[in-house]
Each structure stands twice: as C-alpha cells, then as structure tokens.
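TASK: fixed-backbone design
INPUT:
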C-alpha cells in the first residue's frame, strides 16, 4: 500500500535536521570503473537561487567530497571516464547517480557503473529511493506512451497520436493527484516529504491544497530553508487565487501602445500568460480562439501576456498571426523579469486567470473546453 511505507528518517533520533553550517561527507568507491578519472557533484541551492558544482580527482579508485549544507538537498554525481569526452559534452546515464546529501558521513560503492551504486549512512537517501520506487511504474508507462505517440506522429496517424497524448496526460494527473499527495504525508517527517511537495507544486500552485499538505509536514521540516521559501510562495499565491482582486498592470501591445488590465473593467477577461516557444500554450490556442469568437460580443475578452524576450519579438508576432489570436496581445519582452508575470507569480506556462466585470478572479487555469463551459455558465449558450 502506498501509505504503508515508514520513512527511515522518521525512525531516527530527534535532531534529524541540520543547522546551517553543518557538513556532509561523501566517500566513493569506484574501483569497478577502472577508467574513472574525475567525479563531479552538482546541486541547486533554493535559498540562494543558484547551482553549485564541485569536482575531485579519482585516486586509487576512490573520491571524496565534503562541504557545508543548509539543509538536505538532492544532488547529481557524474563520473568522467578516461578517453571519453567530459560529462558536460557527452552525458551518459550510466555515468550518473542521484543522491540526497545530508549532514552525515555517507559511503557510495559503484557496481560496474555509477548508475548502479549503493549508498550507506544516509537515512534521507533511503527515503528518496523508496519514493523513486513508488513513482517509477508511472514514469515507465508515461515514457512508453510518449514514445509511441512520437512514432504515430511520424506515420501521420494523428488519431492514435492523440490517444497516446491523452494517456500521458491522464497518467500525469493520476501521479500528481493520487500518488504525490499521498507521498507528502508518507514522508512528512523527512526532507523527502518537502521535496515531493515541491514537485507537486512545481510551476502551478493551488494555495489552499498546497497549504494543507504543507501543514502535514513535521514542524522541523517546515523550518528548513526550502520550507520557509515554500511558505512565502503559498502566501504570494493566495494573492492571485480565486476570490482575490486581480492586480493591475500596464504593458505595451504589439504596436508599442500601453495597455492596462483595468481598462477592460466591466467585462469578463481571461488574463492569459503564454509564449511563442511554448508548445502547450500553442496547443491551447484553438480553444481560446473558439471561446473568443463565441463570446466576444457577450461581454468577454482576452488579454494575452507573452513572456517572450526581446530577441523573440518577431517569433511572438508570427505566433500571433499563425494561431489567429485577434484579441489584445501585450508584452514587455523581458524574460526573465516580465513585470506582469512576476505580479501573478508565473513560474510555468500556460496559465490563465478569469476575471469578472468587477475585477475579481473567479477561475484559474481553465484548459481545453473548460473555458467555454465556464463562459456558458456565466454568459449562456
């Protein structure tokens, strides 16, 4: 059963979390990879918003890393093999391994490849591997459907390709809603629980749902730097959740003229965030065109904000023309740094917000025919 897994972390003595400045030690045995010459260690510091990269030479079949940690963090190990290009130039999955670093003494032993390794001394790594084992069947199925979809597209079998695409979407939804939610609770006393919750909220956040899961985490886990950052994100997400008033902004349209969101007051407005290079965004274009055509004379309009950058201006304009997006299009052509996107905490696209005539947000992220159905409720068929 999904929720029967007991995190090894939770079985340890109190003080599972490490104050800033505590050190991790990682000793590796790669005797089974005779040509190994150098090992790289990479991880992302959410608190600092930057990547860390370190390396060390392999000597007598062993390597050693040590350093301060603010919190347990997921990291990648890569081995460069004598006679091959560097791992940056020619990455191979057999030459990599994912490890959850913590302030402890960890020992890695590689068997025939770095990918086939065992780590001892890390309760958090144990929890992480159990998490991976749980989601792997979903990931395998998703990959299989995805690859079959590519093949159907090659043979111009659009109906079968669409079926594979729908299967991928359904499995992703099941993984997201059923499995990840459960795993947050399973590993509530482990940093892995926080990691899973961050995966669950990646890009698009439902603040009330996320906050409920966040409060399931042990206080010590919530107190980690990443936990505090997530709490801040939840608070900001509430500012643009259903029931909140839309934040006003002004950006230039395709001709350079300033357009203000509040100028559409008195209408239902779909505030749509997208970009010319965003495949899922372009996929939604026909549904937006359909809704706009049907309801534009009934008090509805769309304001699309592109997060394209300055050197993509021509591609932005081309995409508008190709997709037949005849409503108001604006962008400050700053990516990263689009002011409107920052106001609405946009970290992934497409995203949209349906705003009522009084300026209040009444729905978010309406996909497919969801927008049309919602507008039928509001404006009639």
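OUTPUT:
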């Amino acid at each position: 059963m999904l929720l029967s897994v007991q995190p090894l972390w939770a079985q340890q003595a109190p003080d599972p979390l490490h104050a800033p400045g505590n050190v991790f030690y990682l000793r590796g045995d790669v005797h089974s990879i005779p040509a190994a010459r150098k090992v790289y260690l990479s991880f992302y510091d959410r608190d600092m918003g930057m990547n860390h990269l370190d390396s060390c030479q392999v000597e007598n079949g062993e390597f050693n890393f040590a350093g301060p940690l603010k919190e347990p963090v997921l990291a990648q190990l890569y081995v460069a093999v004598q006679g091959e290009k560097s791992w940056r130039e020619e990455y191979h999955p057999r030459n990599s391994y994912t490890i959850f670093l913590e302030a402890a003494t960890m020992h890695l032993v590689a068997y025939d490849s770095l990918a086939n390794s065992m780590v001892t001394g890390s309760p958090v790594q144990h929890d992480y591997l159990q998490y991976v084992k749980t989601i792997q069947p979903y990931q395998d199925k998703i990959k299989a459907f995805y690859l079959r979809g590519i093949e159907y597209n090659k043979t111009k079998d659009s109906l079968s390709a669409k079926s594979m695409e729908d299967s991928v979407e359904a499995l992703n939804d099941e993984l997201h809603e059923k499995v990840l939610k459960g795993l947050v609770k399973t590993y509530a006393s482990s940093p892995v629980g926080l990691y899973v919750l961050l995966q669950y909220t990646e890009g698009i956040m439902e603040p009330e749902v996320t906050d409920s899961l966040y409060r399931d985490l042990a206080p010590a886990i919530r107190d980690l730097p990443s936990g505090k950052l997530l709490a801040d994100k939840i608070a900001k997400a509430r500012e643009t959740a259903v029931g909140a008033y839309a934040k006003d902004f002004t950006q230039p349209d395709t001709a350079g003229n300033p357009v203000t969101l509040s100028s559409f007051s008195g209408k239902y407005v779909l505030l749509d965030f997208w970009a010319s290079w965003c495949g899922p965004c372009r996929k939604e274009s026909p549904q937006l065109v359909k809704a706009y055509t049907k309801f534009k004379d009934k008090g509805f309009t769309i304001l699309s904000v592109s997060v394209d950058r300055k050197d993509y201006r021509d591609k932005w304009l081309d995409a508008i023309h190709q997709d037949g997006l005849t409503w108001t299009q604006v962008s400050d052509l700053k990516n990263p740094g689009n002011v409107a996107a920052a106001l609405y905490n946009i970290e992934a696209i497409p995203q949209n917000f349906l705003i009522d005539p009084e300026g209040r947000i009444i729905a978010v992220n309406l996909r497919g025919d969801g927008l049309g159905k919602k507008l039928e409720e509001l404006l009639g068929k």
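COMMENT: Residues 23 and 68 are 4 Å apart (CA to CA).
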